[in-house]
Specification:
Elements (H helix, E strand, L loop, with lengths): L1 H17 L16 E4 L5 H4 L3 E7 L4 H17 L4 E7 L5 H10 L6 E3 L13 E5 L5 E5 L5 H14 L1
Parallel strand pairs: 2-3, 3-4
Antiparallel strand pairs: 1-4, 2-5, 5-6
Helix pairs in contact: 3-5
Length: 161
């Protein structure tokens, strides 16, 4: 029993160092190890002072396809000045198939293959990570549950400028 308590304590200690609270400002990493597919290439500099919506999706995922038009609309409305949308095709499908899908659906926001948000891998797709203009993690959730918050945050930035 004593050994089990020590093991549990060790596991909890390690986990406490790897979890990120919503109030922490964390650097965005994960694009440098991925493959750029289309749209503008994103840099750390481009993300400064902007809301960032990082979307994990899969080419063969119908719910992911359904979220793409809304992500595109947010990108079109707020992109460049207030918002960076980054899509990460997580199922590692053929690059030409991905490009054909993006062209057919007129998706212009940045798309990478295999990109991660600080090495986080969601249990499934679609899944999104929302980061505030201050660089702090806001929320991780289904993209459909974040659209309103993204628009609200972008409008608040717009009002400040």
């Amino acid at each position: 029993m004593k050994m089990m308590k020590k093991l549990l304590l060790a596991v909890l200690t390690v986990m406490s160092f790897t979890l990120v609270s919503a109030a922490e400002k964390i650097p965005f990493t994960g694009l440098e190890k991925s493959r750029h597919i289309s749209g503008p290439e994103v840099t750390q500099e481009m993300m400064k002072g902007k809301v960032v919506l990082f979307d994990y999706w899969g080419l063969g995922c119908p719910p992911c396809h359904a979220s793409m038009p809304k992500l595109q609309a947010l990108w079109k409305k707020y992109g460049d000045k207030y918002l960076i949308v980054i899509g990460s095709e997580s199922w590692r499908r053929d690059r030409n198939q991905i490009k054909a899908f993006l062209t057919k659906n007129r998706i212009t926001f940045p798309i990478y293959q295999g990109a991660t948000y600080n090495n986080f891998q969601p249990g499934g797709v679609p899944h999104a990570v929302l980061i505030g203009a201050d660089g702090k993690l806001v929320k991780m959730d289904h993209p459909g549950r974040l659209y309103g918050k993204v628009a609200q945050m972008c409008e608040a930035l717009k009002a400040k400028k």
